[in-house]
Amino acid sequence: MKGILLAGGSGTRLHPMTLAASKQLLPVYDKPMVYYPLSTLMLAGIRDIMIISTPADLPQFKRLLGDGSQYGVRFEYRVQPSPDGIPQAFLIAEDWIDGAPCALALGDNLIFADHLSLSLQHAAKRSSGATVFAYQVRDPERYGVVSFNEQGKALTVVEKPTDPASNWAITGLYFYDHRVVDFAKKVKPSPRGELEITDLNRLYLDEGTLQVERLGRGCAWLDAGLPDSLMEAGQFVHTIQARQGMLVGSPGEVAYRMGYINADQLRAHAQRMIKTELGRLLMQLADTVPDQS
Asked: How far is 235 from 239, CA to CA, in rounded Å?
């Protein structure tokens, strides 16, 4: 499976912070926002990843992330000329996807849960259909909402409903089979002029192949696209790291634990940040946790 990290848009809900910098490059506690969805894709076992962003911001992502070799993965980069909806990413990357199954993560989403890697890898290994993740929220009208029947199967998916049928929001993480580009081509612009990811999901729902995994207690999903949620995300990461001593959203740690890089490679990566707490924690990881490569 290949992965797309969509980090485009103008970040208008975070102005003036995003007038001079991409939203996905803003800090969430001690790391750039983009590190969190990147880590999620890597936890799913995905090592071929395309970063899609605006013409102005893409050089900054290249500067930050490079070619991916420091994490034992491969990065490609593409421009999204204008923010015309999430499914547009599959059309931009059509030749790169080349008939493979593909996951997509939004650049402003953070997911944290015990055993998350197992759930992600299970979704990545499905041979057909699509898998999305749902999370209970207090304001479902802001999101794509999924409702369920009595057997727990997805019944409807609706984008930003005025009268939500449930409080289960679909998170910004999607796994699709090899037909995703063909399905994306069938999606028509909505009244607001964008290709809606909910319409793509509905195509899979209508044929009975959309699987919805519900994130329950012990899980956290944060959409850091508003000032309050950006601050909450930073506070959440700080709390977990300070109290539990575990890293959240560190591609270097994920790469090491997944066996993508060895201890010496992790030490070299950590050395470049050795004056920071993150660098010291990564160095400690390389010295105390057995090499998985």
From this structure: 6
Is cis: bond before 59, omega within 30 of 0? no
Side chain identity, residue 113:
A
Q: Please tell me the pTM assigned to this model.
A: 0.95
pLDDT, position 185: 98
DSSP, res 143: S
Contacts 24+ apart (CB under 8 A), 253-257: 253/39, 253/281, 253/282, 253/285, 254/39, 254/42, 254/43, 254/71, 255/42, 255/70, 255/71, 255/72, 255/73, 256/282, 256/285, 256/286, 256/289, 256/291, 256/292, 257/289, 257/292
Q: What share of the chain is helix, strand, coil (3-state, %, to 5)?
A: 40, 25, 35
- Tell me the pLDDT tens digit for each residue of 252-264: 999 999 999 999 9
Q: Return d(Cα 260, Cα 239) in angstroms, integer.
A: 28
Distance CA 269, CA 279 (A): 8
Average pLDDT, the chain: 94
Strands 48-53 and 74-79 turn out to be parallel
E-assigned strand segments in the chain: 2-6, 27-28, 31-32, 48-53, 74-79, 102-106, 109-113, 130-136, 144-148, 154-159, 168-176, 210-215, 219-223
| Rounded Cα distance, 5 and 284, in Å | 29
C-alpha 249: how far from chain center = 11
Integer Rg of the chain from CA: 18
Separation between Cα atoms, residue 273 and residue 275, nearest integer Å: 6
Maximum distance among all alpha carbons in the chain? 55
Q: Give the closest residue to 1 by CA, choosing from 133, 129, 126, 184.
A: 126
